[in-house]
Design a protein that fits this description.
Layout: H1 5-25, H2 32-56, H3 63-89, H4 95-114, H5 119-142, H6 151-176, H7 189-224, H8 236-253, E1 257-264, H9 267-274, H10 276-291, E2 299-304, E3 307-313, H11 317-333, E4 335-338, E5 341-344, E6 347-354, H12 362-377, E7 383-385
Parallel strand pairs: 6-7
Antiparallel strand pairs: 1-3, 1-6, 2-3, 4-5
Helix pairs in contact: 1-2, 1-7, 2-3, 2-7, 3-4, 3-5, 4-5, 5-6, 6-7, 9-10
């Protein structure tokens, strides 16, 4: 097979088609935004493959058909990819911007091909908008990128930055040539290298999309292992990890950590009387009341049954007691509706202060547990703090 622009375009189209199928059938699980984003990227690759195949058979088509129809497919694929990437990353989709850039590129290229034919100006005009579309992807990847486990975003960043560099190189090369080619199908070194390298970009981008999808799945599994499925708050494993992290920060800042152990009073009677489904709804309402009393840096987690733990960093004893009293009062004032009946619920709260010099949080947890026991023994619906 003779290596020319048509041959390279045929190879690129076949590669895009295979990548499209791989992305479409390789994404059946995970969060909806990630799956929908990859499916949209697969659709974009399919459209891109059609554009490549049109270029591959330009010897059977008029040059104007190749230009107008091929650019329509390729620019549509680029616009869809912008939206797909932002969908996966859960960024603002930028539909209007992507479509506007694609439409402006198509109109300008068409004008410079039919009304005022000038190949170098045509390439320059299209390149400006190609760079603009690539920069939308770079902005989506750069903004809010995580510090760790971001290999996929780094790979995609490099893919789009290299694509920008390739477009710039092509324009510089064209303007330096004494006799520029009359179209992308002309067998020149610039066109061959450009089509060859351009064909690698979908592969790099698709691998980046798949890695990004895998990273999102891994993060979701990590979070699921640390979230209580009923209430949506942190579970015991998550609390253990958060406790260690908070203690490390407390040591560096030399600040204490407040610990609250909250238990719903007589909760077993609710399950016995109304059933576990209604009991679960009461727990959800209880969690809502706890969370709305917390500061931005506070953490609540479920340690089991109807017992919850609150970790409040950088808090003094008086402020911790005030927080506990706000939670107790909010729960007491809330009417819990069960099976059409209003039911009053109260909580008992044990409080303790963890000193940053302690080896771990277990000592403070035990002191809060002892204080909770004293609150229950004293009649429930009250706050008690450990003496030390």
């Amino acid at each position: 097979m003779h290596l020319n622009v048509e041959t390279l375009a045929l190879i690129n189209g076949g590669e895009a088609l295979v990548l499209s199928l791989m992305l479409w059938f390789g994404t059946r699980s995970g969060s909806n935004h990630a799956v929908q984003g990859l499916r949209l990227r697969a659709t974009a690759l399919l459209i891109e493959a059609v554009g490549d195949f049109i270029l591959a058979f330009d010897f059977k088509l008029s040059s104007l058909t190749v230009l107008l129809v091929g650019n329509t497919f390729n620019l549509t694929a680029l616009a869809l990819t912008i939206v797909a990437l932002r969908m996966v990353l859960q960024r603002k989709l930028r539909w209007r911007e992507a479509l506007a850039l694609g439409a402006a590129a198509w109109l300008g290229v068409t004008f410079l091909a039919t009304v005022y034919p000038d190949y170098r100006l045509r390439v320059l005009w299209g390149s400006i908008f190609l760079i603009g579309m690539a920069m939308l992807n770079v902005a989506a990847l750069w903004h809010g990128r995580p510090k760790h486990d971001a290999r996929a975003q780094h790979l995609l960043l490099w893919a789009y930055l290299l694509a920008i560099a390739l477009v710039v190189w092509r324009n510089v090369s064209l303007w330096l040539l004494a006799q520029p080619p009359q179209g992308i199908g002309t067998p020149t070194t610039v066109n061959l290298v450009y089509v060859l390298l351009l064909g690698m970009q979908p592969l790099m981008a698709s691998v980046g999309f798949l890695l990004l999808y895998n990273e999102i799945l891994q993060r979701e599994l990590h979070d699921l292992a640390r979230i209580d499925p009923l209430t949506g708050v942190t579970n015991r494993l998550g609390l253990l990890e958060a406790s260690d992290a908070l203690l490390v920060r407390a040591r560096s800042n030399k600040e204490p950590i407040g610990v609250l152990l909250i238990d719903a009073d007589h909760f077993k009677s609710i399950n016995d009387r109304f059933g576990h489904d209604d009991g679960d709804r009461v727990l959800l309402e209880l969690v809502y009341n706890i969370r709305r009393m917390l500061r931005a840096g506070d953490l609540v987690g479920r340690v089991g049954g109807e017992e919850f733990l609150v970790l409040s960093p950088s808090v003094k004893e008086a402020d911790l007691l005030a927080l506990a009293e706000r939670i107790r009062s909010a729960v007491e004032r809330t009417p819990f509706h069960i099976a059409g009946q209003a039911y009053a619920l109260t909580v008992s709260i044990g409080a303790a202060i963890a000193d940053p010099s302690e080896p771990d949080m277990m000592g403070a947890r035990r002191r809060a547990d002892a204080a909770l026991y004293e609150a229950k023994r004293a009649g429930r619906n009250r706050v008690m703090i450990s003496g030390g």
